[in-house]
Each structure stands twice: as C-alpha cells, then as structure tokens.
Target: Putative oxidoreductase GLYR1
Amino acid sequence: MADATKLSVGFVGLGIMGEAMARNLLKSGLFSSVTVWNRTLSKCDALVAEGALSAPTPADVVAACDVTFGMLADPEAALAAVFNEGGVLAGISAGKGYVDMSTVDEATSTKIGEAVTAKGGKFVEGPVSGSKKPAIDGQLVIMGAGDKELYELVQPAFAVMGKKSFYLGATGAAARMKLVVNMVMGSMMGAFCEGMALADKSGLEQTALLEILGLGAMANPMFAMKGPGIMQRAYPPAFPLKHQQKDLRLALALGDALNQPLPVAAAANEAYKTAKALGRGDQDFAAVYEATQK
Ligand code: NAP
Model:
C-alpha cells in the first residue's frame, strides 16, 4: 500500500535525460507513485513496464500528482507542454508543484512560473548540468530557483536525480546560470575540435594531443570522454548538438539584452550552426568537429 506521507510525483518529457531521471525517481521507492507522459506516448512503455503509471496528457499527470517534473527539449517544447490544450497548466490547482528542469531562457521560465502561480500552484526551475551518463547514475548538478518551499519539498527527488543542488534565488536565476555554464561548455568543445582538426592537418597524432592536454592544467573529463569519438568521427547522442546550439543561441540573446560582448561564444555558435546544417543536429554535440572538416 502506498505510504500516505510519500509524495506522488509526475514526469513530463522522457527524452535522453527525462527517461533516466524518471527511472531514478521510480527506482528510489521514495514516492507513492511516479506518473509519466511523453509527446510520443510509446516512450512511456519501458517505464510503465518497470512500475510507473502513465497518463494521456500532462494535465492528467499534474492532476494525479503532488509535484510534476518537466524535461523538455527547448523553450517551444517547454511552453507547449504547459500551455497547450491538456497541458500542465490545465492540471494545476492550489498546492500543486511544477518543477521545470528543461534548459530554457529566463523569459520562458518566468512565463511558465507566473501562469502556474496564478492558478495557485508553486513553481521551481531546475535545469541540470551533466549529460546522459550522470542522468542515469543520478549524478546531475541541479540549479534551482523560484519557490523556496517547493525547492525544499523536492530535495529528496533532487537527491535521487543529482549529486548536488543549488538554490540560486528568484525564478530566472537558474535559467541564466545554466545558459552561462553551457555557453562555456559549447565554446570549450568548439576550441577543442579546432585543436583536434589542426593537429590532424599538420601531421600530428590526435591521441598525442589528447594525452598532452590531459596531463596539464587544461585536463578535463569532457576532452577525455569525447576525444576518442571525435577521432572515430562517431557521435552517438548523449547531449544532442541541436540542444547545444540552442543553449548558445539563448546565451547570446542574454548577452545581447545586457550588452555583454561574447565574441568567443558567438564564433562557437557559428560552428554549431554549420554542423547542424550538415545534418548533425541529432548527433552528440562533439559532432561540431564536422564543422572543421567541410
Ligand atoms: P531529447 O532527447 O531531444 O528529448 C526532448 C524531449 O522533449 C522529448 O521528450 C520530446 O518528446 C520533448 N518534446 C520536444 N518537442 C516537444 C513539444 N513541442 N511538445 C512536447 N514535448 C516535446 O533531449 P534531452 O537530451 O533529454 O534534453 C532535454 C532538456 O535537457 C533540453 O532542454 C536540454 O538542453 C537539457 N539538457 C540535456 C542534457 C544532455 O546531455 N542530453 C544535459 C543537460 C541539459 P518526443 O519524444 O515526442 O520527441
């Protein structure tokens, strides 16, 4: 029998990240039920087979749960899941919580937060750092902002999905932090791929470059993890390139709004756009290497 003191939780958006995060909520046994929805409904099947409930619309998920988490592709998807007919908003009533963990811009997050709050609900934004593997391992870093009470309430869920969560302030702060983090990451990966390309063109072994980078102050898990795939030009998606380009686009818009020059990120964004135009959008963001090979 379900423990009445346990929260019932929902999850909307079962992509690469959402499915793994929802599975960790389910496996934890901490919640009285886990109810899931995905636009392509068949993606609910695996979790249902493992014990989750599924619902036909986001509104039904929210209606059935104390707190619902969202993990959608981009601002358009995050807004659609909330405002479309049968969306999150239609299920919100007083006391219910919605935690949007998608990477979106502040305006999107604020619009969702205001709509949820206007119906008596509570809203937290909780974008994450960490990719497919950390999502599977429950090792994400969660950037939280918005309703502090809801943030505290969902700490057990954040502890299952992540290794650390931060409360950064009013809605918008976590969205901005996440964009800054991914702007740095996208620029780093762009610079790394250019280095790999120049090494190769100038007759150097890319394995030697990887090893030399790995032994100095520039050593980082990302170069070590993505380097071998780049050498094989194989990019199974952990973080889809189209999402990295979206994050650079949103970070540059934030820079524009604040008149903050971002020349390095702007140049990196062009490389991701080129890779997208080469048909690499659904591959891992390391496929930005292909932009160096045209
Ligand atoms: P993904 O695999 O592409 O999944 C995207 C999800 O959004 C799917 O559930 C998709 O549904 C849904 N979706 C897309 N358009 C929609 C719409 N119009 N209405 C409703 N649902 C829609 O992406 P992901 O890698 O899991 O990333 C999800 C979010 O996390 C993104 O904001 C991304 O930037 C962020 N993030 C990703 C990573 C990573 O390494 N992958 C790391 C940190 C943060 P369908 O299945 O029907 O297409």
About this structure: The domain at 4-170 is CATH 3.40.50.720 (Rossmann fold). The first strand starts at residue 8 and ends at 12. The two ends are 60 Å apart (CA to CA). Residues 13-18, 38-40, 43, 71-74, 76-77, 80-81, 102-103, 128, 131-132, 238-240, 243 surround NAP (CB under 6 Å).
